[in-house]
Amino acid sequence: MSSAFSTAKFTTQPFPLITTSPRSHCNPLSNPLKIPNVSSPFLGFTRKLRLGSSSKLNLHRRPGTVVAVSDIVKEKKSKSTPNLLITKEEGLELYEDMILGRTFEDMCAQMYYRGKMFGFVHLYNGQEAVSTGFIKLLKKQDSVVSTYRDHVHALSKGVPARAVMSELFGKTTGCCRGQGGSMHMFSSEHNLLGGFAFIGEGIPVATGAAFTSKYKREVLKEADCDHVTLAFFGDGTCNNGQFFECLNMAALWKLPIVFVVENNLWAIGMSHLRATSDPQIYKKGPAFGMPGIHVDGMDVLKVREVAKEAIARARRGEGPTLVECETYRFRGHSLADPDELRDPAEKAHYAARDPITALKKYLIQNSLANEAELKAIDKKIDEVLEDAVEFADESPLPARSQLLENVFADPKGFGIGPDGRYRCEDPKFTEGTAHV
């Protein structure tokens, strides 16, 4: 079956970021923090991309129409509203999910500084278009594998705000009973296969999940198993060996997986332009025989259009896709990061392209929603978050006996003594004198 994502097309020509303004082609090493003086809203890549002679891209789009990033992504139009990409219901769902993610993270910052959360907490502010644009298109049976910046991925996948907040508070009502914390969200019920503290850790897990789907369908003959896996990771991960190994394996076996690069331009304090020989990450896809797409990660509608085809392609059995979403985080790497390395002008540039503000403007201008409807959603989410915080704060801490659960395959071989009690309950356990 033919696909709108053709590997041949990807290997013969690059694709433009947008049709009206090219990327900057300044020298990234001369001043990697300097804002290029061009009309393009993108800072991440430095080479101007040119269309090959075989391109069929229509450069004369209707004014105001939101389009995907290249000619291989078809314009999707709602049947009920032929000039728009989404219906009213879809628009409100996207807005609510993005507001939930943003408000949740803002509340996390408050609770962290009040001493309710501990350890490293990495917030997702600014990147909501990626999570919402992809995850809200999934079925419940589809899987998501995240990173250490995983709170909003969990929320988009349907994990209740109460469960995520309680996990951050280290309480038994958390999605991991308080044992995972900020970087290790997990929910088997929602097929959220984890956040991972180390970069690249989750990609092999996601590849394995995709292999499971393919095995069930082709070997176990479960005809209805068309489950897709999304693997989220950042630009810094794309220089790691696990990334390349899993791209190779996924392409070799045509696994139903979408590799989603959340390129926020910074790996902690290292500029993407200074760390990668070729900063155009999406070009690594065709090297393994899979499509590579670059999309404006600050525009949820463009992300959604690309995600639709990539997910559908995987579900049809046509293999993996690499999607690079160029986005930006509005806060430091973590709440412990004073965020002094990034140029204030760069931060202001991206703040002006806030994905939530852009979606709100689109909904109102196209009469898909009015201010009252959007304010009602804002109020609803505020109440959800107040409830989540109250619930988490009042929930009990884990019992000490829970400490060694889910650590060893056979807890009695180490964690539980001959008397049936946990060894950690021995008063001498922390003195270093307990016999273990």
What is this structure's SSE topology?
Layout: H1 7-12, H2 88-113, H3 128-135, E1 143-145, H4 151-156, H5 161-169, H6 202-218, E2 229-234, H7 241-253, E3 257-263, E4 266-267, E5 270-271, H8 272-275, H9 284-287, E6 292-296, H10 300-315, E7 321-326, H11 344-351, H12 355-365, H13 371-394
Parallel strand pairs: 1-2, 2-3, 3-7, 6-7
Antiparallel strand pairs: 4-5
Helix pairs in contact: 2-3, 2-12, 2-13, 3-10, 5-13, 6-7
What would you say about this model in short?
The chain has 436 residues and is of the alpha/beta class. It has helices at residues 7-12, 88-113, 128-135, 151-156, 161-169, 202-218, 241-253, 272-275, 284-287, 300-315, 344-351, 355-365, 371-394, and strands at residues 143-145, 229-234, 257-263, 266-267, 270-271, 292-296, 321-326. The strands form 2 sheets. The protein has a 5-stranded parallel sheet with strand order 1-2-3-7-6, sandwiched between helices. The protein has a two-stranded antiparallel sheet with strand order 4-5.
